[in-house]
Write a sequence for this structure.
């Protein structure tokens, strides 16, 4: 299999060639060009597009996550091909409008049409099903462009075309063309009509938010500065397309994707249309840590012999197995019809009408198994939902992982139910845990409360279970200050989207805050009835920041001791002149001394002692 970078680069060259042909096209210049040169350009366009399709198929086989928008390239190719044909018809047959009545059916069309009718009749007599969509697609490719275009313009596009509808159209078309073949047509080129018009800004071109005619909604500075929920509310109230941010009744012709989450909406609507509450996958991350579900990297083989790797979830709580439609498309197989009702969590029902039989291969052992899978669009969210620190999991040295990337979030393409789960379980390997620190042996029941289990299966060793209680970084304010410092360093504007690394820092910070238990700090400090007062100060530093805090230790006449937080202070390491850790520790001590001076305003008769650490 060719290197993915080489394939992507080759595909980029093909797209560039199509774009150059599109930019060089001009009806005025092409009408003055020799016919043979136009034919050469047309043939070159077809060859380049064929190479583009072939490269896309190879890239998808290697990287199923490839998101190149083939629809835009296909639309450009078809428009350019149609323009070439119109120019050729105009140069070869005079008036394009009159040339339609002079067209004779090509030699290949009539016998092909006859053979199609014969084959359809044979299938009907044998009682075999007729796949209308496939047959219509094949026949339309055999027709000339004008006939194919006339069929598409004449029919109702709200439903899929049928074979009967196509054959009736071809019969009418053939009769009309043969009838008009004897009508004489003048070859004189009609006089070109030139019209002059003055363009005025239309209502659709004006910004619907600030009513300005100088820009559109997606360029409006006021709309960009509006709060995210206000942008969404405005789009919904005014029936504005979430993709192109304009008003239209039909389906949007653009295929824009959000630059942040890669979903089908405009980037200006990111964070309100795509960010919802975190999804729950059977068991999600809790305050006790994230729960890993057993996953394996399996191998599938397509009809053409291409090897496709997929991430499979081994689910002992499911009675059925599932596969995504994307994998079925890559395998180039046709699923069979079924009528099955799937009942999930909260007794939610969903009907599934397709299933397929797959041969699933292990990537670790010479093992394969046949699995009957129901075809669905998606199975679950990414697993795991957040990145897991691999260093916190003790893996035995002789474990061959079924999914080497089990700790990284990834799409699930296959779900293997309980019937498969218990078939692939194997006995644990001997001598898996070699040290006392490796508390997770390769077998069930060997996991500690803070370590997940490692199960031996025919696909390799799978890791499943709780990863233990997450630790929340302290102090909280310092992390927030560091994020603000990095934002300032990146020169991010107020209405701009911050870089991905800073967004991840903020998401991790907010996620840790949600996991952290509430902290209660009594802020009422009293000195009445106290016999002894002591100030205790702490100061510390790291390469990122330094800080200090001050406590008041009080002892009353009965000998009861109270310890209360007075105040604290923190600073981040300056960016322009980075300080070393020893110098930062000295700064922390200085900050503590300055903070202790401010406590002189306390209404305390005397301080009996001061301790600094």
């Amino acid at each position: 299999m060719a290197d993915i970078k080489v394939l992507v680069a080759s595909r980029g060259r093909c797209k560039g060639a199509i774009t150059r042909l599109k930019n060089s096209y001009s009806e005025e210049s092409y009408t003055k060009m020799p016919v043979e040169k136009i034919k050469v350009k047309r043939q070159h366009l077809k060859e380049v597009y064929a190479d583009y399709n072939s490269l896309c198929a190879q890239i998808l086989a290697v990287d199923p996550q490839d998101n190149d928008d083939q629809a835009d390239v296909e639309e450009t190719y078809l428009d350019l091909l149609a323009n070439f044909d119109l120019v050729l018809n105009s140069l070869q047959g005079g008036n394009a409008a009159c040339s339609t009545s002079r067209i004779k059916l090509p030699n290949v069309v009539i016998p092909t049409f006859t053979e199609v009718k014969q084959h359809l009749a044979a299938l009907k007599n044998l009682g075999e099903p007729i796949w209308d969509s496939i047959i219509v697609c094949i026949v339309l490719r055999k027709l000339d462009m004008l006939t194919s275009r006339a069929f598409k313009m004449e029919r109702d596009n709200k439903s899929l075309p049928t074979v009967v509808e196509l054959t009736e159209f071809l019969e009418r078309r053939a009769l009309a063309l043969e009838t008009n073949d004897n009508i004489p047509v003048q070859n004189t080129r009609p006089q070109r009509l030139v019209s002059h018009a003055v363009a005025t800004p239309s209502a659709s071109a004006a910004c619907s938010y600030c009513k300005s005619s100088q820009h559109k909604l997606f360029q409006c500075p006021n709309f960009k500065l509006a709060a995210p929920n206000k942008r969404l509310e405005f789009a919904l109230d005014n029936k504005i397309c979430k993709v192109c941010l304009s008003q239209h009744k039909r389906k949007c012709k653009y295929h824009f994707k959000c630059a942040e989450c890669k979903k089908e909406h405009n980037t200006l609507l990111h964070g309100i249309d795509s960010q919802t509450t975190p999804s729950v996958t059977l068991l999600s991350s809790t305050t006790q840590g994230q729960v890993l579900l057993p996953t394996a990297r399996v191998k599938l083989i397509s009809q053409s012999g291409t090897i496709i790797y997929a991430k499979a979830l081994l689910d002992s709580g499911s009675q059925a197995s599932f596969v995504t439609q994307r994998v079925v498309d890559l395998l180039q197989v046709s699923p069979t019809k079924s009528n099955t009702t799937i009942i999930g969590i909260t007794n939610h029902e969903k009907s599934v009408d397709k299933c397929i039989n797959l041969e699933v291969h292990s990537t670790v052992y010479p093992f394969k198994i046949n699995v009957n899978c129901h075809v669905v669009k998606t199975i679950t969210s990414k697993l795991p939902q957040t990145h897991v620190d691999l260093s916190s999991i003790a893996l035995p040295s002789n474990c061959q992982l079924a999914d080497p990337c089990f700790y990284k979030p990834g799409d699930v393409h296959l779900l293997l139910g309980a019937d498969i789960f218990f078939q692939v379980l194997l006995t644990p390997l001997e001598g898996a845990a070699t040290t006392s620190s490796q508390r997770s042996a390769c077998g069930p029941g060997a996991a500690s409360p803070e370590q997940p289990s490692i199960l031996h299966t025919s696909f390799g060793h799978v890791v499943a279970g709780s990863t233990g209680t997450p630790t929340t970084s302290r102090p909280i304010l310092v992390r927030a200050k560091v994020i603000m410092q990095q934002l300032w360093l990146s020169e991010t504007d107020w209405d701009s989207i911050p870089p991905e690394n800073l967004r991840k820092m903020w998401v991790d910070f907010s996620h840790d805050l949600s996991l952290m238990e509430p902290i209660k700090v009594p802020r009422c400090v009293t000195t009445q009835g106290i016999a002894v007062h002591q100030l205790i100060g702490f100061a510390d530093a790291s390469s990122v920041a330094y800080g200090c805090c001050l406590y008041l230790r009080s002892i009353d006449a009965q000998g009861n001791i109270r310890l209360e937080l007075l105040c604290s202070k923190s600073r981040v390491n300056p960016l322009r002149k980075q300080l070393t850790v020893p110098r930062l520790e000295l700064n922390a001590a200085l900050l503590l001394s300055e903070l202790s001076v401010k406590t002189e305003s306390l209404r305390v008769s005397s301080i009996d002692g001061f301790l600094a650490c």
